Amino acid sequence: MTVLDQHVWQPRTDPAPLLPDPEPYRLLGTPEAGALDAGLLTTMYGQLVRGRRYNRQATALTKQGRLAVYPSSTGQEACEVAAALALEPRDWLFPSYRDTLAAVARGVDPVEALTLLRGDWHTGYDPREHRVAPLSTPLATQLPHAVGLAHAARLKGDDVVALAMVGDGGTSEGDFHEALNFAAVWRSPVVFLVQNNGFAISVPLAKQTAAPSLAHKAVGYGIPGRLVDGNDIAAVHAVLTEAVARAREGGGPTLVEAITYRMDAHTNADDATRYREDAEVEAWREHDPIAVLERAMRERDLLDDAMVRDTEQDAERMAAALRERMNEDAVLDPMDLFAHVYAEPTPQLREQAAMLRAELEAEAQS
Length: 366
Fold this sequence. Notes:
Keywords: Oxidoreductase, Pyruvate, Thiamine pyrophosphate. By secondary structure, this protein is of the alpha/beta class. It has 13 helices and seven strands.
């Protein structure tokens, strides 16, 4: 009997249910939007407005020399906020370098969330406090970490789901494929959220993949792929909430692709005009996530001019407090460079720490 006769080559899963819908899933502006919880929409609106102001203030801080770099998520705030709101307090969020806002929406102190980008610490907050992993500057390395944590939690019997965020550029990294394959085989309770903002720095998506969508890649791993309008916060929240529930119930991982757009440059060091036209950016402004939600809420009389004004004033107070605190010069100990890297410092780290300590002592005596 040959291998082919045993039919072990056949797919273990019917691929049809794993395929994403042909068009991104939407809620706002559809008849189904009328059934959305008013309180949740109000919370989302407040978080979006604060998030937009946070992005603009952080960008301004780079121009003032208070931040070394800031990768803005302006235009992607719906994905950021929805990811934070879809999780339970016991769950874990694994952000990429652009997901500072998601960490803040999860409860991380706004100043502490910027500490890495300020260059003061490896990460400026306690990951365990809000269950937010350190912001990840290397592309996609947070994905295997999310899978490892979620898989270990399941082995221990802990009711924990990990939500890992990555950009479309990160899907071209090997870590992306390794994480999805392991999670799929072991049915780890992980949700992968790909924020497809059109560009990996200056490289358009068409030069990264020939797949119909990034969500279609899920089929190759035997997991469901979902395609959603990333500027429709209600739709993103609904899809992520469903995926989190599925993971928690033992259904395994889900790959969610959110179609969105990065309105600002890749970072303050990037000149986006070199690879995209202003007309393209302006076209996406018509689908601004704040405007999309505001229109839907006004149609249901859930938002008026006074509420808009109050929300914007609250965002301004947040921005003022952020400016004031960021204008304070941090008192840093160079030896902190070696703290919280490993539970037990490696011989190399101990050697490097001794060298730095000797240099500091010599400098103090000179």
